[in-house]
Specification:
The protein is mainly alpha-helical. The protein is 39% helix and 4% strand. It has helices spanning 6-15, 22-45, 74-78; strands at residues 84-85, 88-89. It has a two-stranded antiparallel sheet with strand order 1-2. Keywords: ATP-binding, Ligase, Nucleotide-binding, Protein biosynthesis, Transferase. Belongs to the GatC family. GO terms for molecular function: asparaginyl-tRNA synthase (glutamine-hydrolyzing) activity; ATP binding; glutaminyl-tRNA synthase (glutamine-hydrolyzing) activity; transferase activity.
Length: 99
């Protein structure tokens, strides 16, 4: 016996506002039946003696240590700039307004 019927798929399609043809309804009913069966098998395996987990392997802090580093001084930061003015990057004006 199928877990989901063609009529149920048609009902879900109407609720989702999907226009499905008859052959698509039959195909989706069979596919959803396979999916529901697979989920049921997983639920059988995951009984009460197996603790829930979010990862297959135990994880600890996976972040790198937070270390401070010396930043760039203004001369180093501006060394590769194509144009510099008053220790700032000089860029072309993109707005027609006066500053």
């Amino acid at each position: 016996m199928s877990a989901i019927t063609r009529d149920e798929v048609a009902h879900l399609a109407r609720l989702s506002r999907l226009a499905l043809h008859d052959d698509e309804l039959d195909q989706l009913a069979a596919q959803l039946d396979v999916i529901i069966s697979a989920v049921a098998k997983v639920q059988e395996v995951a009984q009460g003696d197996i603790p829930p987990s979010s990862h297959a392997l135990p994880l600890t802090n996976v972040y790198r240590p937070d270390e401070t580093h010396q930043g760039l001084d203004p001369d180093q930061a501006l060394a590769g700039a194509p144009a510099v003015e008053d220790q700032r990057f000089r860029v072309p004006r993109i707005l027609g307004e006066e500053a």
